[in-house]
Amino acid sequence: MADLLDRIRLNGDVPAHVAIIMDGNGRWAAERGLPRHLGHREGMKSVRETISAAVESGIDILTMFAFSTENWNRPRQEVTALMRLLQHYARRESDELKKQGVEVHVLGELDRMDESTRGAVDAIVADTRGGAALRLNLMISYGGREELIRSARLLAERVRQGEIAPHDIDESMLEATLFTRDVPSPDLLIRTSGECRISNFMLWQLAYTELHITPVYWPDFGRANLFEAILDYQSRDRRFGRVASS
Ligand code: IPE
Ligand code: IPE
Ligand code: MG
Q1: Which of 135, 200, 215, 229 could join 194 in a cystine, given CB atoms 3.0 to 4.6 angstroms apart?
Q2: 3-state secondary structure (DSSP) of residue 163
Q3: Looking at residue 221, what is its pLDDT?
């Protein structure tokens, strides 16, 4: 383990912002003949371990996709189990996250959450404010298309008020209307469970993000997997549409 981190350090720059689509909890459970919610519960251990490893590696921002807009369409029982788990996580992890210097932000359409989940989530955000080691964005009830629709509405409203003209709208003005307005785009996106798709995650922000897809199911993901993804990232040549760097 130490040598993966040593290799990362020798390579130099770590990605400043890593985003993760945490997928495969259901299949992890199914393979063991267990109900899906036990897969989600097991996945919480991976969340904990990945956050510690992110702090250890020197990443500044970690963004974790926990629940999508489309996930509201799952059976009610599963949605309830996920919301309960979220509440449980928020209540139980707050002290440990504070100790580690993790500042939690929760991004998404939060009004769709029930009152007690919303309360737990607001509390962890308030309790961890000021953490300087890592910014953690938990994406909950989040969808990339919804985020862009929201942006279009906000900008249209500003035009209607006469504050701006349509041709004033540029990348930075649009970015300022996103949930992620105060964070740079992810450098690296990790998706677990082998699915090669974005599933409506950060459609604007991922334009030039490096993708790392691993077959590992989220409950089996841990420190070594994060470090391997960072090493993979460090081997990439990011061109941003230009010619290769010499
Ligand atoms: C990811 O695991 C957790 C959420 C989407 C909330 P899944 O529940 O999607 O697990 P699979 O993809 O069915 O295995
Ligand atoms: C994406 O996983 C959403 C989260 C990880 C929260 P899904 O399991 O919902 O995505 P699909 O349905 O496989 O595209
Ligand atoms: Mg899935």
Answers
A1: 215
A2: coil
A3: 99
Alpha carbon distance 226, 85 (integer Å)? 23
pLDDT of res. 152: 98
Q: Which residue out of 20, 27, 68 has the highest number of ligand 2 atoms within 8 Å of its CB and is therefore the one to mutate?
A: 68
List, in sequence order, the alpha helices (H) in the chain: 2-11, 25-31, 36-57, 76-100, 115-127, 144-160, 171-175, 223-234
> Among this protein's residues, is 23 annotated catalytic?
yes
Query: 142: CA distance to ligand 3 center in Å?
Result: 15
Could you state, in chain order, the average pLDDT of each consecutive group of 10 residues for the chain (246 residues)? 89 97 98 98 98 98 98 98 98 98 98 97 98 98 98 98 98 98 98 98 98 98 98 97 82
CA of 47 to the centre of ligand 2 (A): 16
CA of 21 to the centre of ligand 3 (A): 9
Cβ–Cβ under 8 Å, residues 183 and 135: yes
Locate the domains of the chain by residue range: 2-233
CATH topology of domain 2-233: Undecaprenyl pyrophosphate synthetase (3.40.1180)
β-bridge pairing 102-107 and 210-213: unpaired
Is 189:210 a contact under the CB 8 Å cutoff? yes
- Tell me, using a 6 A CB cutoff, whether residue 177 lines ligand 2: no
Known catalytic membership, residue 122: no
Does any ligand 2 atom lie closer than 6 A to the CB of residue 89? Answer: no
CA distance 224 to 242: 32
Closest residue by CA, ligand 2 atom 12: 199
